[in-house]
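JOB MANIFEST
job_type = single_chain_structure
chain_count = 1
residues = 504
[input]
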Amino acid sequence: MNPALSRITRTLILAGLVAPLSAQEVEKTKAPVSVDPAPVSRQAGVITSFAPVVEKVAPSVVQISTTKNVKGRGRQQSPLFNDPLFRKYFGIPDPDEETPEDETPQRRPRRGNGVHKEALGLGSGVIVSKEGHILTNNHVIEGADDIVITLAGDKKEYPAKKIGSDPGSDLAVLKVDLKNVPAITFADSDKLRVGDFAIAIGNPFGLTQSVTMGIVSSVGRKDLRIVDYENFIQTDASINPGNSGGALVDIEGRLIGINTAIFSRTGTNAGIGFAVPANMARTIMDGILQHGHVVRGFLGVDMQDLDENLASKFKVKGTSGALIKSVQKESPAAHAGMEAGDVITEINGKSVEDPNELRMTIGGLLPGTKVELSYLRNGESKKAQITLAERRPEDESKTTKPQPETIEPDVLDGVMVKDIDEPLRRKYGIPNEANGVVVTAIEEDCPAATAGLRVGDVINSIERTAIKSAKQAEELSSKLKAEKEILLHVSTKGVSRYIVVKED
């Protein structure tokens, strides 16, 4: 797993999917939100208190509680006990950890197979329209059978319906049957600047209406591998479990983001939090309200970043562009003749900086849209006219299940490979359609290991020559010993990537 991912921790309990509403219940119009596009005032002055801002915004931030129907009797406890971060922080043992047999209490099983409600989690949400639309994170309400919200200063719970969700951005839209609720005003998040004040309001650890203050530390954060579509605002305003789905506002009390995740080694705030920008959240919400889900364009390629080694092997000047590591069958890209190893450099005449930029651009276009892609194949410039399809949930990229990305690889000395057979397929989770040879042993300090090759990886090609057998791989490797760099196309449990193995 990418080591950076282990430090990126979601802020609340992950739980499951609420049954979607029927087509008749899905709203077909945009939520009548309030938007103030003016840039924030940045005049120098002395700020003595943020109380007026908090008083303005707090009524729009709600607490969200979720429950799940479970058969049999259950023990009621705070839903925060379901949060692994909460348990770790307070030293509470994980109930899923195995207990040694000699320490296992001998208890008679409790009888009863009725249905009871089990608390899943607590989180936050933001009221965005007077008609009762609420924005929150998908992981706050995922898996819940019942969702209730509590308004600020009101202990009464109100049932909420799930209108739809978008796992690709970790956003969800709820609706509560109340009128004239205090709705927040949106800011134009594209006008944010690093250094602007940022105030986070939510319910960390179940503590209602908690407020923290910081600044906008960065904008446009990507490649965090939290979700498929990343364009995060980074802030040092303290965010902890329970803040998920809460509001990040500017100094004028306008919504600039939906708090989503933290970057931490301990699971609690380390001064690096991430929020989905308000403009992106509003666009996704409108798509959910109009269609019940977000409609995105689909190209059908899996991509990776270029580094200097890969750029050299693929004859690309610089490291800008999106390297195609695989093309999905019967996809628009496949029909256009695109192949693994192509490097996309432009879309509709606009330069492509990296895969995330291309993914965001394609995802922002509707199915049926015609695009022109410029790409390089073996250093030769080519163009493709492609009509985008609709992205389905099963087409979502595997960024939420990250595999090791390329660092700087080398030659096959110190690597043992075998032909793929059924036992090896089962052992290493190799798909039936995967061809090549499987790595069964590798020396820790060999060039290939340094490059990122691991036991269980399948080598599909060496220097763009398809590998059919271990004998062929060994022979080709021997012929290439004089080379200083060798390009490998490898896959891990069906997820492919390129690596460049460099001689020490």
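[summary]
The CA atoms of residues 166 and 314 lie 35 Å apart.
The chain is about 15% helix and 35% strand.
exit_status = 0
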